[in-house]
Amino acid sequence: MAEEPGLSDQYPTASPWPLFVALGLALSEIGVFVGLFPVAVFGLILFGGSIAGILTESGYVGRPWPTMLGVGVVLIVLAAAFTLWQVPVADIALSNVGTGPLFTRLVAVAVAGTVMIAMGGVASIMEQTAV
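The structure assignment produced for this chain is given below.
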């Protein structure tokens, strides 16, 4: 009995992605709900990148970059929708970031989405030019 029970040749080790999904979700919740801008942005990027990684590892997608682009777009659309729904139009300005807690949190979500789009776009372009 040299083999360990429960392990197959196809999956010799456990996936690290569920840990990063949970960590990203927890950090993003703490950052958004407590109002810690850098923690919110980092947590959302970690969460979205982990979703892309777990989908790529499981074989649902071929590359992680389109998934990162999609998650980034969803974050920006949600932030924009909540901003238009909850923040008065007169208060929507970059000079108001940091003054209103809701608007600052929504900007953090939009920044995380923008960074994910930039990361996914640059990586996709670099991957295409390298081949």
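Interim note for the steering committee: The mean pLDDT is 87. The chain has one domain: 17-130.
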